[in-house]
Amino acid sequence: MAEMQNSNPTILNVADLPTRSRAAEKTSGNYGSGIFAAVPNPSDFLSSDSEGDEDLLEEPIDEQEIYDLIKSISDPEHPLSLGELAVVSLPDISITPTLPNVPESPLQTVTILITPTITHCSLATVIGLGVRVRLEQSLPPRFRVDVRIKEGTHSTGDEVNKQLGDKERVAAALENGALMQVIAKMMETCQ
Amino acid sequence: MSALQTFLLVVDHDKEEAKRIADGVAQDVESKRITLIEIVQQLGEYINDEDPILRGKAVSFLTSVIQALSPKFLSRQQIQVLTTFFCDRIEDGGAVAGLDTLQRLDRFNKGLAAEVAQALFSNFQDLQSRSQSQRFQVYQLLNELMSTHRVALRDMDEISLVGIVDLMTGEKDPRNLMMVFSILKVVMMEWDITNHVELLFDSVYNYFPITFRPPPNDPYGITAQDLKGRLQDCISSTPQFAPRSIPALLDKLDSTSPNVKKDALNALIACIHSYDPDTVSRYSITIWEVLKFEILNAQEEFLSELSLQALQAIARRLSEGVTQVSQDLPLAQYLRPITKECNEQLQEPQQKQAKPAQQILNSLSSASVVAFTLVVKTVVAPIFTIYQEADGIAKQRALLETLSVLFESAIQVYGQWTTRGGEVAFENPLLEFKDQFSDVLGQALMGAAKEEVFFRVTALKGFLHLATLRGFFQDNEIGLFVQYLDEILLKEESVGRDDLKKEAIAALAEISKHKPRLIMDITFPAFVATLPDEDDGTNSTYLSTLDTLAQISVERDIFETLFRRLFSKLTILLQMEQPGAVAYPRAILMTILYVMQQRKMDADPSVDLYFDKIVVGLCRIVSESASGKGKNQILNDATILDTLGRLYNLLVRSVSIQKQEQVAENVYKLFSATEDFQPVPFAQGATAHQERTIIISTYLLAGLSKDCSNHIPHTSPDMSGLLSDLVQRCVSESAEPATHLAFLRHLALLVNKFLSKQDLNIAENLFDSLVSSEKRPLSPTTIRTIFWLSKALVLRLAPTTAHILTSLVGLLSSPDQQTSCSTARGFAILLSDDDVLSATNGASIRLLSKQRVFTTVIPMISSRIREVNVAGNDVSTDSSKASDHIKPAHLTALAGILSTISTALVMPELPTLLPLLLQSLDLQTSDSVAVRAATLDTLAVIIRDNGVNVIDKCGHVHSLVVRLLKTTEINADIVNPPRLRVDALKCLYLLAAKQTSGDAAPNTHPPPSISPLLSEKSQVLRSLRSVLDDPKRDVRKAAVDARSAWLRGVDDAPEEDD
């Protein structure tokens, strides 16, 4: 393995990463938790569990969901995730309508700004590509994905952005077997 | 022809005959008909022959004769002559075996041993060019000499040392190497090797690392691990090797292969364990310098773990015999650069290398008391400094974690309050910082913002370590911590997932093991004081209080206090002259139940007290309430009775047989003192209140041992009356649901557990009369009665099991739709686990019952569905219309059975079963959701445990994939609730993720074939793309996982293993 460029980065604790706070889990009566859950309520025996109205409730794709998709990608250098290294972070993800003038259009654009751990990280392009591939595989076709280096966090940020934004160059990169292997390895930890 | 000539003729092809000839000659020798000299003379013409094979056979003849002689026969002189003879002929076949025989004899002496060894050394220069078995024989002889005449060999000194090394140099066969290594190890440990260290070391180290892989079906069963172990023993055998072994092994850590590094580390650890402390000390810092990188930049977890073990082993060795802590100790010198490095890494405790630094501190400080003291003295003060200057809570938390690591080591070294023995003479160096710890942790726990849950949890865990650490805190200091915990639990609002509260409860429970007094004095009064006298329905905070009390009261003393307090609360509630809400008393009962379940009640000396108070005492009040004489309605409530019943059940199981007999007599009468109370069986026109006491009776009955059956009322001369009465009550549609279930269980219990074998026909007749009743439709209560009765009989594998199952399946085809549907749902009852009819309660549940039901029912269902399918293809619409419900009914029944048995039973029937499961997935209506969900569950388990290949073997991959994809769709015609969509996606995910059988050994390579999923790949990816836009988040998540598994896992060719 080549010498690491940043062998000792700062790590965020997994517990501190933003998560979706599940709205109070379905509580069945007062005995929902703790020791009282162990004894079934006798009236449970006959009632059939009916699917509630919540099945009809729609849950649109939001920033947290995008974050959850990419936070578990591994860094190509460390056995750590992009979330733990703060390469991706929730405030740096935004979802906007692709065509603001056409309100009925379902097209949406996801913009992700990534923050390399050091300003001269040569792997920034690979990371950007990895994020892009992950999202293209995981989002429905009506989403456009835009991955960029956050301004001021990388010495050649513009250069990298050009590369990440150029469809032709992205396509060419994805043809590259060695590169795809690196990206596949990064995504092994996505669950 | 002489015996010798015959022997030479037959020895090649008839070993038996050859042995018989030799035995004969040996007898002649023993009876003095022939002398050994004569035999040797006979050999004369052959042993000088030019043909080595012939010479070998001739020598073997002599060997065979000697082997057949009795061990005492040969005289010292004869042995000497023979030894010399064999030594001269040692290169001829059979001579080595002859020597082996001779050296076993008592009269074989030291001098002869040396002679034999010398002969081996001088004549086998070319040993490695001989066959494996010949070499093996030579090593074996050497090995024997080593074990019986070691002194003789050792006295030969250099000659034997060099001789042995020369003999084995170049050996490659694993079987031979096993022996060679063990011979060499003896030489290394017992010879004076000063002048030959290099020779000996190289002779074994040349084999490092072992790369041997046993061939498949290796009859000798030698593994690479065996060889590695013996080689490692040699390398670590003597500290004289250290100047060579340690640098060489450390060099091997430059290897790119993790396996080589692993072997090197293991060998290094072995050396550290076996070399003397002085030697270990000499290399300790060198080793640290190298291993540091393995830990700080860990490539593989196991390498870092082994490296930590090695560092810890050094610290242990260097602690041996140390009686006083001083900075001049070799141990201190070893630790100095390490703690320095760790301190540097911990300056930035959030950076990646801080974690390994913590691990290093943990391994070293737990190595010994001395090591702990030295580490604490250099590490703790700097951590406090960084802590004070830290600019953020995240950083402070990382530092608290580091301290916690040291506390864990302290517990390993000094023990907990409950640890027996092993008191340590050294004072705990942490005591110096005690007040600081208490302040910092208390501040972090109670002073931090409430949202900083994880920070506070870290502080709590650290505090807990110190509170349980033996001889550290005073009781009042632990008491302060307990007060903090009480405050968190009683006063603080819930935050998020309540992690802090959960940890606080766990901490109190842990402290209760070490300092029960503190819990009883501080926590108990505080908590009990918040319990209301009655529940006015406005506030249910008592639930969390009871929850906490239950979890910290498992220790005996605390439990007795808890029981006293709660029972008096309960008594007050039962005395109130108003209806009263049931939630609170039920919660109290549940709390008592929970704690009793956690404790071993049958070993509790107070069990009789609990029995009298709860079972006998409360039963009376139950009977009073049932006859309308109660002060309030609490004990008339079904949920209260159910909870109380569970408590009874537990207690009855735990008391003596005499008490159980009392219970048996009172199982219906309920220890009642009033005349008004009417026991349920045979009661006419009982009120709902009275009938409800069957719940209590059932739980009492369940707890009784089988031996009490004679004491149960209404069972003599037989149970027929009682059972018929119960069946009538079961079938009746007027009972409340809870009462009804109790009747069913009661019936099942009697039939399964208490009905004697010869009386089984009573139950079977009841079953038959219910099933063959002319009345159609059969009411749902009748069908449930049928199934509970069947359950009782089938679980004990009654002789009529097959008949019962056939009748049940028959009901599915009933032309009456309602009968058929209710029957279908009943199948889930048959094998499901039940809290009352359970193995814990001594029900007779035969091991094979599940398998029996499955293998009987599945073929019946399968063939019936086939019939229906064929009939459905006919155009005769009328008859098929009328039986539209039959197929779904069978599939529902199947799902019911599948949900109650393990997949291991399912696998042999998979070819029959899979088509049925696929047809279940074809159902589309909303009332089939449960069936489809159960089917998907079963499929998921099958795929997870066995991989896609089992499906492929049945040839159903395509049909399965198509149906799964259909189930993920949102479609107007098919009802696919989100749960089904998720389950179907999970199956798709598992298909791609588990392409090789789950339990296959990791070494077996999958057959290089094309994945059966490949032809489905593009279809799956296309369909799942639209599922990615599902309105429900969980579905999308499952779709993402499934899709990426297919993208990643389904490939043209199986991936090459590296």
Automatic annotation (TrEMBL), chain A:
Keywords: Chromosome partition. Gene3D superfamilies: 6.10.250.1280, Fe-S cluster assembly (FSCA). GO terms for biological process: chromosome segregation; protein maturation. It holds the Pfam family FeS_assembly_P. Residues 63-147 form the MIP18 family-like domain. Belongs to the MIP18 family. PANTHER family: CYTOSOLIC IRON-SULFUR ASSEMBLY COMPONENT 2B (PTHR12377:SF0), CYTOSOLIC IRON-SULFUR ASSEMBLY COMPONENT 2B-RELATED (PTHR12377). This is MIP18 family protein. It comes from Penicillium canariense.
From TrEMBL, chain B:
It is found in: Nucleus. GO terms for biological process: DNA repair; iron-sulfur cluster assembly; protein maturation. GO terms for cellular component: cytosolic [4Fe-4S] assembly targeting complex; nucleus. Residues 40-297 form the MMS19 N-terminal domain. It comes from the Eukaryota. The keyword DNA damage applies. InterPro entries: ARM-like, ARM-type_fold, MMS19, MMS19_C, MMS19_N. Key component of the cytosolic iron-sulfur protein assembly (CIA) complex, a multiprotein complex that mediates the incorporation of iron-sulfur cluster into apoproteins specifically involved in DNA metabolism and genomic integrity. In the CIA complex, MMS19 acts as an adapter between early-acting CIA components and a subset of cellular target iron-sulfur proteins. Belongs to the MET18/MMS19 family. This is MMS19 nucleotide excision repair protein.
